[in-house]
Amino acid sequence: MRATPPGPKGAPVIGNTRRFARDPFSFMSACRDAYGDVAQFSLADDPAYLLTNPADVERVLVSEERKYRKPLFDDDLKDLLGNGLLLSEGEFWRRERRRTQPAFDMRRIGGLAGMMTDHAEDTLAEWNDGRTIPIDTEMARLTVKIIVDAMFGVSFEDEAVERMQANLEPLGRHFEPDILRALLPEWVPTQEHREYQAAIETLEGLIEDVLAERRGTAEDPSVDPSSTDAESDRPMDLLSILLRAQSEHGDVDDELLRDELMTMLLAGHDTTALALTYTWYLLAHNPDVEARLHREFDDVLGGRVPTTADVRELSYTEHVLKEAMRLYPPVYSLFRETRTDVRLGGYRIPKGSVLMLPQWAIHRDPRWYENPLDFDPDRWAPDRAAKRPNYAYFPFGGGPRHCIGKRFSLLEATLILGTIGQDYRLELTSEEPISLQGSLTMHPEEPIEAVVRER
Ligand code: HEM
User: Which residues, listed in sequence order, are joined to residue 337 by a DSSP beta bridge?
Assistant: First the structure.
């Protein structure tokens, strides 16, 4: 057993926080290159470990997952997501995961394709040749509408979507690594903190509106035409499931209802919107890939709106999306905390340590990806992909806590790409490479603007 893992030297008290806050992405890659599979550094005054070997990722997420938990995130994240599925732990988490799973059943999800493409077509109805759009905002607008329709069985009016989008920015800003926040006690009131609390209240207001509309309708089959619960004909959207649990079993109180809806609203739209945004960005920079994608759309769809059955035939599209999420994983690192002393990469890591499992650095590691910075969807051809270790790619996490929305978002992203990409190309207004901002997810620092061009 070796001693402490190597790592960058930090300043007193703030440790490596300044470097991390300035550019977490370069920091993660630099640690991988300089120190190897396990690097130790300090965030604020706490030791953290960066794991960049897929075999260790597999251990933490899958084969030895019982030794790890999600870290006790700061109170601010708890204020936002509470005890929803993303943050809860133990038996409570297991019960809720089991309860909510039917809303993500593939037979049900497959039945939502028409709703998804309808929303995509509504977006297109507002576009025309030559119009300039912010790709990231447009994609988020579209995925918000889809998630509330799919999971809550309601439609958001444009006004509600705008109210929500206006409040996502202060939310995101709050979770950007920030040297000042690392040092200030949480009770020190700042302008930024007040904006954060106000944003949470606005989102809670939207959720209350949804609940006011939906209470008393959890048995109404017209709420969710894709219901799979054929015997009782009861709607199987997430909110109907939770509302029935509340009235029938009494083990879902109003607070949990709020937490689950907030979690799904945020986790269920921002990530997919980012995956699509980065895909459009990469396509605009890679005309050969774009041309092949168009050929696939023409061959498989021939001008039709895509369906769930078509998605199975759109194999190049699948590789394009996969490759975009390799280079730009919307979730750029996972975090875990050790429940006991553990051994990883030949080192003993003490109980209570924070671990980072960075998709960003592992997805770009030349050990697993030849010319790792190239956008090359063909690297996902089965014979090439099979040569890579498991967990050299994990945009949706892994093990029992893997993303519950994975298949939903892959279907959604493919249908949106197909619906839009058949008719339009997005031409970037700037040649500059994008800058990225790490928050809960990985965002472009500035809006990505593009001119809509008819194909
Ligand atoms: C491209 C799109 C998406 C990406 C990249 C993504 C990524 C992830 C990742 C990496 C995790 C694991 C977090 C961890 O282990 O700490 C996760 C969990 C989760 N995701 Fe997603 N996600 C996406 C779409 C969605 C969608 C569409 C939904 C909801 C409809 C969703 C809901 C959730 C929830 C509730 C969890 C927590 C699951 C649990 O712990 O049981 N995600 N996601």
Answer: 69, 354
Mean pLDDT over each residue of the chain, to the nearest integer: 91
Say what angle helices 135-147 and 270-285 make with each other, to 10 degrees.
140
How many angstroms separate the alpha carbon of residue 403 from the centre of ligand 1? Answer: 4
| C-alpha of residue 312 to centroid of ligand 1, in Å | 22
Taking residue 107's Cβ as centre, other Cβ atoms within 10 Å add up to 12
Say how far apart CA 126 and CA 137 lie, in whole Å. Answer: 14
> What is the sign of the dihedral through the CA atoms of 439, 17, 397 and 355?
negative
Distance from the alpha carbon of residue 301 to the mean position of ligand 1, in angstroms: 29
Question: Domains along the chain?
Answer: 1-82+332-394 (1.10.630.10), 91-325+406-454 (1.10.630.10)
Query: Rounded distance, CA 115 to CA 226, Å?
Result: 10
Nearest CA to ligand 1 atom 21: 403
Residues 6+ apart with CB under 8 A from 353: 47, 48, 49, 337, 338
158: which residues sit within 8 A by CB, 6+ positions away?
A: none
Place 179 in a pLDDT band, splitting at 50, 70 and 90. low
Q: What's the 331 CA to ligand 1 centre distance in angstroms?
A: 9
Ligand 1: atom nearest CA of 263 is 35
- Both tokens assigned to 295: 């050929």
Query: 156: helix, coil or strand?
Result: coil
Q: What was the pLDDT predicted at 373?
A: 97
Residue 249 structure tokens: 């079993």
Specify the residue with its C-alpha closest to ligand 1, atom 12. Answer: 397
Q: Name the residue of 93, 403, 441 whose CB sits within 8 Å of the most ligand 1 atoms, as the mutation to test its pocket.
A: 403
Give the position, in ligand 1's atom list, of the atom nearest the Cα of 84.
Answer: 35
Of the given ranges (78-82, 143-147, 213-217, 227-231), which has the lowest mean pLDDT? 227-231
DSSP 353: -
Residues with CB under 6 A from ligand 1: 85-86, 97, 147, 263-264, 267-268, 271-272, 275, 330-331, 334, 395-397, 401, 403-405, 408-409
User: Within 10 Å of residue 237's Cβ, how many Cβ atoms?
Assistant: 25
Asked if 333 and 357 count as a contact pair (C-beta separation under 8 A), the reply is yes
Work out the average pLDDT over 112-122. 97
Q: How far is the CA of 272 from the centre of ligand 1 (A)?
A: 10
